Every structure is written in structure tokens, then in C-alpha cells.
Amino acid sequence: MRLDVRAPGVYAAPMWVYLNNAFLSIVAHRTKPEYLLVRARLRGDIERVFPGASISESAHNDYRFRTEIKRTDAGRVLGAAVEGLRYDNFKHSVAEPDRHDAYVKAWEAMANLQRRRHPDP
């Protein structure tokens, strides 16, 4: 199945990717169309998903850590993560307590948005 990025409500980029051991922000590269800019807030998150990636660090950027990844490589790696998914509860699969707490705050924000947009009858 191929995702039609032109379909209503489907967007190719940017995206946030919450994995149980990494949080990534992935956006289109501004000058290299065949690449994506993969950004992270925590040291090691990019490397866990893309081992061997060359990481730059800057305290002046919104996301402190970043790398450039070919679109095809990102798709292959993220697709493999989906194929390898084995847990039935994401929040319970997050081992790091501080990461878990941050993710729960994001979960709560979206749960609140759901309740506002789709209140119980």
C-alpha cells in the first residue's frame, strides 16, 4: 500500500515520531529534496533509530541534535520499526521514567483535545 500524500488530510512532512526509546521531528530538507532533516531533543535518540548517522549539535537550534537522512533510508528504517512492533500498549513500553512522563503529557494533551472536539453524548 502506498500513502497518497495528496489525499485530503494526509501530509508528507513534517512529522513527530514517538518511539519507545526515541522522539524525532522529521521535516523536508530545505535545499536537498532527496533528504530529510531529522531532529531530536535528546542526545542518542537519532543514533538509536539511525545508527551511524553524523549528528550535529547546537544549543541555538530549537532541536539541539540533527542529521540529514536520505528519504529512502528513513522510510526503510521507520517501516522496519512498524514491522517489528510487538507491544500492545505504547505507554507501558517506554522504559525511561522521564521519557515516559513526557510522553504521557503529550498523550494527555491529545486526550483533552479529543474530549473537546468529540464530547461524550
Describe the secondary-structure layout:
Elements: E1 15-19, E2 22-28, E3 35-40, H1 45-49, E4 56-57, E5 65-70, H2 71-83, H3 90-93, H4 97-117
Antiparallel strand pairs: 1-2, 2-3, 3-5, 4-5
Please give a structural write-up:
The chain is α+β, with helices and mostly antiparallel strands and 121 residues long. It folds into 2 domains: 1-86, no CATH class; 88-121. The chain contains 4 helices and 5 strands; from the N terminus they run βββαββααα. It has helices at residues 45-49, 71-83, 90-93, 97-117, and strands at residues 15-19, 22-28, 35-40, 56-57, 65-70. It has a 5-stranded antiparallel β-sheet with strand order 1-2-3-5-4. It is globular and about 50 Å long.
Spell out the key features of this protein.
alpha+beta; globular; 5-stranded antiparallel sheet; 121 residues
β content, as a range?
15-25%
Structural class of the helices, strands and pairings? alpha+beta
N-to-C series of helices and strands: EEEHEEHHH
Number of helices: 4
- Strand line-up of the largest beta sheet: 1-2-3-5-4
Give the C-alpha Rg: 16 Å
- Which whole number gives the mean pLDDT? 91
Q: Would you report the number of β strands?
A: 5
Dominant shape = globular
Low-confidence stretches: none
Number of domains: 2
Give the biggest beta sheet: 5 strands, antiparallel
N→C terminal distance: 36 Å
Percent helix: 25-40%
Summarize the structure.
The chain is an alpha+beta fold. The protein is 36% helix and 21% strand.
